[in-house]
């Protein structure tokens, strides 16, 4: 009856769009107009190295709510482009990266210093990653970087372990040692001690080797030792994803 229908609560539906490679404040600035909307609403949630945007619509039924959400989601894709890695609430960043590796038939290895295996651990969270990830290196000391990854002694002497030069040689050396298409490397100062004015605690370099080319990225984080290591892992996954997208485009 019309009376009963009028008493029924409206349905609330939501959709999640997950971003990487953009900070929370930059993401919010890009959607100030959408954040002001009442129905559907867009709400940002900051995660370590990621921003999740939840679109929520209230409507009489699910179909109507869905048709209200769709154009907002399209707009988020338009504004954030490649920063959107999924719109599936259950898909993690490492799963999105693993899917990319799989679809392009790429093998990967990791070469880690300050993250001490956390990056390899994130990748190994993904079921079925064994088709793409065979091995990783934890080269905490300079000796290990030379011995396992072939980083040159001269590079370490001239630039130090925490440098774009060392990150690049770690990435290239790791790929060669493992016979992998790709290698992502991380070297940095996780603290709480060991920082200098030139190289403060939280300074991290990420390297990525992809089929003969090497790219590096500089990051500066604040926070505890474990926070810096967590952020470094998220950045390494994000950088790896970016390099795969760039190098396989076209």
Would you mind describing this structure in some detail?
The longest helix has 24 residues, at 225-248. A hairpin with a 2-residue loop joins strand 2 (41-47) and strand 3 (50-59). The protein has 10 helices and 9 strands. With 250 residues, the chain is α+β, with helices and mostly antiparallel strands.
List key phrases describing it:
five-stranded mixed β-sheet; four-stranded antiparallel β-sheet; 10 helices; elongated
- Mean pLDDT equals 96
Number of continuous helical runs: 10
DSSP helix fraction: 40-55%
Poorly predicted runs are none
Q: Which structural class is indicated by helix and strand composition?
A: alpha+beta
Largest sheet: 5 strands, mixed
What is the β-strand count? 9
Distance between the termini: 57 Å
Strand content: 25-35%
What spatial order of strands do you see in the largest sheet? 6-5-7-8-9
What is the N-to-C succession of helices and strands?
A: HEHHEEHEHEHEHHHEEEH
Q: What does the radius of gyration come to?
A: 21 Å
Coarse shape:
elongated
SSE blueprint:
Elements: H1 2-7, E1 11-20, H2 24-30, H3 32-35, E2 41-47, E3 50-59, H4 62-80, E4 84-86, H5 93-103, E5 108-112, H6 118-124, E6 133-138, H7 142-149, H8 153-159, H9 164-178, E7 182-188, E8 203-210, E9 213-220, H10 225-248
Parallel strand pairs: 5-6, 5-7
Antiparallel strand pairs: 1-3, 1-4, 2-3, 7-8, 8-9
């Amino acid at each position: 009856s019309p009376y009963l229908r009028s008493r029924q609560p409206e349905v609330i539906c939501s959709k999640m769009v997950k971003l990487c490679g953009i900070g929370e404040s930059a993401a919010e600035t890009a959607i100030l107009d959408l954040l002001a909307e009442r129905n559907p609403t867009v709400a940002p949630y900051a995660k370590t190295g990621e921003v999740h945007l939840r679109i929520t619509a209230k409507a009489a039924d699910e179909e109507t709510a869905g048709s209200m959400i769709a154009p907002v989601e399209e707009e988020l894709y338009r504004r954030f482009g490649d920063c959107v890695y999924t719109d599936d609430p259950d898909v993690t960043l490492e799963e999105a990266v693993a899917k990319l590796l799989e679809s392009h038939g790429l093998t990967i290895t990791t070469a880690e210093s300050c993250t001490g295996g956390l990056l390899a651990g994130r990748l190994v969270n993904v079921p079925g990653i064994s088709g793409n990830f065979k091995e990783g290196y934890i080269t905490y000391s300079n000796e290990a970087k030379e011995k396992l990854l072939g980083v040159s002694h001269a590079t370490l002497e001239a630039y130090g372990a925490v440098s774009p030069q060392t990150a690049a040689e770690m990435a290239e050396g790791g790929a060669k040692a493992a016979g992998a298409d790709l290698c992502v490397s991380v070297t940095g100062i996780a603290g709480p001690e060991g920082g200098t004015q030139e190289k403060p605690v939280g300074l991290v370099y990420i390297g990525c080797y992809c089929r003969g080319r090497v790219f590096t990225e500089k990051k500066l984080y604040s926070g505890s030792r474990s926070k810096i290591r967590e952020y470094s892992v998220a950045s390494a996954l994000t950088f790896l994803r970016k390099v795969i997208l760039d190098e396989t485009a076209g």
